Amino acid sequence: MRGSIKMCVLVMIGAAIIFYQSHLSNTLVVRIETNQELPNAKEEMFVDGNGIGVAAVGAGNSGAVGILNINSNSHSQLALPPLYIITPTYYRAEQLPELTRLSHTLMLVPNVHWLVIEDAHTKSPLVGELLERTSLKFSHLVAPMPDKYKKRKVKPRGVSNRNRGLQWIREHATNGVFYFADDDNTYDLRLFEQMRFTKKVSMWPVGLITKLGVSSPIVRNGTFDGFYDGWIAGRKFPVDMAGFAVSVKFLLERPNATMPFKPGFEEDGFLRSLAPFEPKDIELLASNCTKVLVWHTQTKKNERSQPLDMVKYGTTNLVDLKKVIF
Ligand code: UGA
Ligand code: MN
């Protein structure tokens, strides 16, 4: 009897040791020091049974300390201000590839809510299936461009979609930050962590814009000193759509803020509508605007494909493939 109790205790101790060791061996800690906005903070990257994460250790300028975990529903993520990513999109040959690429970027960002808003009357089931596969928090919405603008040669692209996104934020969000992320741009993951702590409006350079190659706030002696952009056109805020993020609270205090249906002046019109807000209030990110963390890439437009010869291929895999090809 005594012997079996001893045995039992030994087995339990053994099991505890094995459990502890297996946990240790699953945790890989890599120290990196990357975060330009938190000069006193160290980041630790880790891989464990819960996924990959980044932990900011020590207080930086913004005092942002927390554990970020890319596992979508983990409690540690909830400590981070949410990011609302507003993406206008529309049906075309490049739509699914663009959204596939952007979804894979966002899957690496903690505590994101992706608002995918189609310029269409009805939701595309293919876009819906793509969103379901991502495991991201998302809202799939539609906001067609009004017919009167559709007939114009130069259209206000993505405006009805973005305004729908603002409406959703007013109805559902209380804190955090939102960002207009077009479906075809290229985003560096560091951008999302930097914009997350925006108090009013933050800005940074955007690469591949106009003949100047970049659009950016100008920083002289460490402070804001105007804008560098190939197309100023009397704009108070001559910036690109990809070049700024806004605090949700700041938006909620401005119930009339909206984006105008005015091609070329969408950013300026929206930022002006955030009044009271002046260029001096801009929070400069990307290491005082010395880094390019987003690129205004543009994908070559592809022609619509030929219809499938159903007599020849009507009973083959090509029928399925044709459904995802424009
Ligand atoms: C530039 C700006 O970066 C856009 O934010 C701005 O809306 C646009 O110009 C403009 O001039 O109106 P650009 O790369 O030239 O962007 O435009 P697109 O990428 O073709 O469109 C911007 C966004 O709106 C994309 O996410 C796109 O999917 C969406 N879009 C475009 C629509 O929802 N409907 C359309 O008919 C066209
Ligand atoms: Mn674009």
CATH structural class of the largest domain: Alpha Beta
- Determine the CATH superfamily of the largest domain: Spore Coat Polysaccharide Biosynthesis Protein SpsA, Chain A
**Percentage of helical residues?**
25-40%
Give the number of helices: 11
Q: Give the topology string: H per helix, E per strand.
A: HEEEEEHEHEHHEEHEEEEEHHEHEHH
Ligands present? uridine-5'-diphosphate-glucuronic acid, manganese (II) ion
> What amount of the residues lies in strands?
15-25%
Instruction: State the domain count.
Output: 2
Strand segment tally: 16
Q: Which CATH architecture of the largest domain?
A: Alpha-Beta Complex
Main sheet record:
7 strands, mixed
The dominant shape is globular
Mean pLDDT: 85
CATH topology-level fold name of the largest domain: Spore Coat Polysaccharide Biosynthesis Protein SpsA, Chain A
Please give the alpha-carbon distance between the first and last residues. 75 Å
Q: Any key phrases for this structure?
A:
binds uridine-5'-diphosphate-glucuronic acid, four-stranded antiparallel sheet, 326 residues, alpha/beta, 2 domains, 11 helices
